């Protein structure tokens, strides 16, 4: 719900190709309302942080965005494609880093990526070039032949990020991708995804860690299934820090 | 062809995982071998078998239960690989699969084809060991049984997939053992022919006769002796269609397992 926002903080839905937009999305688990009329848009070339405490509805939102399940209430558009009407087109344009690990531990980094490429219809030879490029970009090229089981947490996450980019998506969704990482690995991933956004990708990054958000980032604050704020981090925190603003917002009853 | 690329990748992944898990392979092989070499040896004296189709001569009990044990491998594998989807670690890879830009029914079918292919490899390993113990079938039977194994494997895998989408907590595999695998296995023609069952109870015989596992086992049994059992094939295909329908319903993004798990 953005109705309570000052007009200068409201943003029009952006359905330009490459972007992601959500309109009036609601979802409930039985009697419990997990999302209540959520609307926002993520623009190409921007890092949009979705900040919310545990239980705010972030995971539900991501499940809906990735079409793990669906809801009749509201609309999701990915790179111009309606997720309900043309799910395959929408999914083909989406790169996802899931919260839970999704790599096959006994397979090599390269095998994991080629499996994913094939799921997206990219066969052997074409996939190999893309995989090399993607691993190179993440500084993982020399580890392509290693078993995922032998990698540390930071490198596993980098592998998952490289995998999410193999099919050159225009939208990248990251669901709390830094959970369980040490400070250095966390910083490296956060920096890298910011660079990807600067390169033109649409990024939606869910987190409950305020230090992952930069002042120039777009920021969405989700609390108890409602969107409390939608603007740039600098605008929303207005003089204060993102961390304090976030604490203030989510301490008060929504 | 995007669809085929994905199918082949899913099968290749399953095969690679299988190669990496030798314990799983051995466990799946030891179970039927214990039945064949210990249980059947003890039972051969107790159980007299008359000549029933497709057999044309008196057979030993070991020979009788080979098709049933092939079915057992398919049954255990079908359940195990599908139910493992429910485990949290597997949920992650299921998410990856379900977000591929292909229809969900195709992705789930590919998953079934992959696990069935692995099961069939295990059945052949079992048949090879049985052969080494002089429990052998007509040579062409080993070829003719392939399609029968494929259909039966798909049927049992689809059942596992359907269960995985409906049963809330499958953390304990024991529950499924007790309520699905054991009844299906024991109330079938895997261990004793139906006429033998009828001697003790007509009701039990009738239950066995409608059990799709019975038909899968009979399909395999007839195929091993180069005979075609149309009724068994029909029943097995029908059961496959029903279980697959249930699985697709359960994995429909508008309801089902993933939604409850959040």
Summary of the model, kept short:
Chain A has helices at 58-65, 87-92, 109-119, 124-137, 153-164, 183-198, 233-237, 242-251; strands at 20-29, 32-42, 47-51, 75-78, 81-82, 94-97, 171-175, 202-207, 218-223, 226-232. With 254 residues, chain A is α/β, with parallel strands linked by helices.
Tell me what you see in this structure.
The complex is a heterodimer of chains A (254) and B (262). A six-stranded mixed sheet of chain A has the order 6-7-8-3-9-10, sandwiched between helices. A four-stranded antiparallel sheet of chain A has the order 2-1-4-5. Residues 1-16 of chain A have low confidence and may be disordered. In chain A, helix 3 (109-119) packs across helix 4. Chain A has helices at 58-65, 87-92, 109-119, 124-137, 153-164, 183-198, 233-237, 242-251; strands spanning 20-29, 32-42, 47-51, 75-78, 81-82, 94-97, 171-175, 202-207, 218-223, 226-232. Chain A contains eight helices and ten strands. By secondary structure, chain A is of the alpha/beta class. The longest helix of chain A has 16 residues, at 183-198. The model of chain B has no long low-confidence stretch (mean pLDDT 87). Helices cover 76% and strands 0% of the residues of chain B. Chain B has 262 residues and is mostly helical. Chain B is globular and about 55 Å long. Chain B has helices spanning 2-20, 22-43, 61-83, 88-98, 104-132, 141-166, 173-186, 194-200, 202-210, 212-224, 230-250, 257-261. Chain B starts with a helix and ends with a helix. Classes of the chains: A alpha/beta (254), B mainly alpha (262). Chain A binds chain B through residues 29, 34, 59-60, 63, 66-70, 72, 87-89, 91-92, 94, 96, 98, 100-102, 104, 106-107, 111, 114-116, 118-123, and chain B through 2-3, 5-6, 8-10, 12-13, 16-17, 20-21, 88-89, 91-93, 95-103, 253-256, 258-260, 262.
């Amino acid at each position: 719900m953005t109705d309570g926002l000052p007009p200068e903080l409201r943003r029009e839905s952006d359905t330009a190709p490459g972007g992601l937009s959500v309109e009036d999305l609601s979802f409930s688990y039985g009697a419990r309302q997990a999302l209540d009329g959520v609307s926002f848009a993520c623009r190409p070339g921007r890092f949009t942080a979705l900040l919310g405490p545990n239980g705010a509805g972030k995971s539900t939102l991501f499940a809906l965005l990735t079409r793990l399940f669906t809801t009749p209430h509201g609309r999701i558009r990915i790179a111009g494609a309606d997720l309900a009407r043309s799910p395959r087109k929408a999914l083909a344009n989406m790169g996802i880093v899931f919260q839970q690990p999704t790599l096959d531990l006994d397979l090599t980094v390269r095998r994991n990526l080629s499996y994913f490429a094939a799921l997206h219809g990219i066969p052997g030879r074409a996939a190999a070039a893309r995989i090399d490029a993607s691993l190179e970009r993440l500084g993982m090229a020399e580890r392509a032949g290693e078993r995922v089981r032998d990698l540390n947490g930071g490198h596993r996450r980098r592998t998952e990020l490289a995998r999410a980019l193999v099919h050159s998506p225009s939208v990248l969704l990251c669901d709390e991708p830094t959970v369980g990482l040490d400070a250095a690995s966390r910083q490296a991933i956060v920096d890298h995804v910011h660079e990807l956004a600067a390169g033109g990708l649409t990024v939606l990054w869910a987190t409950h860690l305020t230090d992952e958000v930069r002042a120039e980032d777009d920021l969405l604050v989700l609390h108890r299934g409602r969107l409390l704020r939608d603007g740039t981090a600098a605008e929303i925190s207005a003089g204060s820090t993102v961390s304090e603003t976030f604490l203030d917002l989510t301490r008060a009853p929504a | 062809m995007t669809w085929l690329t994905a199918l082949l990748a899913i099968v290749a992944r399953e095969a690679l995982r299988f190669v990496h898990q030798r314990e799983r392979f051995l466990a799946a092989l030891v179970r039927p071998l214990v039945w064949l070499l210990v249980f059947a040896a003890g039972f051969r004296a107790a159980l007299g078998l008359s000549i029933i189709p497709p057999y044309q001569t008196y057979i030993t009990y070991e020979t009788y239960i080979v098709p049933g044990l092939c079915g057992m491998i398919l049954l255990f594998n079908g359940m195990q690989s599908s139910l493992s989807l429910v485990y949290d670690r597997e949920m992650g890879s299921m998410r990856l699969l379900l977000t591929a830009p292909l229809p969900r029914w195709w992705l789930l079918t590919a998953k079934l084809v992959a696990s069935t292919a692995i099961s069939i490899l295990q059945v052949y390993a079992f048949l090879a060991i049985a052969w080494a113990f002089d429990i052998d079938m007509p040579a062409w039977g080993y070829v003719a049984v392939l399609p029968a194994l494929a259909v039966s494997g798909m049927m049992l895998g689809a059942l596992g997939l359907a269960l995985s989408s409906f049963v809330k907590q499958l953390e304990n595999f024991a529950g499924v053992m007790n309520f699905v695998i054991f009844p299906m296995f024991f109330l079938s023609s895997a261990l004793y022919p139906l006429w033998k069952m009828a001697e003790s109870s007509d009701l039990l015989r009738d239950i066995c006769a409608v059990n799709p596992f019975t038909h899968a086992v009979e399909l395999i049994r007839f195929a091993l002796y180069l005979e075609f059992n149309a009724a068994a094939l029909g029943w097995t295909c029908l059961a496959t269609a029903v279980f697959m329908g249930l699985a697709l319903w359960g994995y429909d993004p508008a309801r089902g397992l993933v939604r409850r798990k959040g």
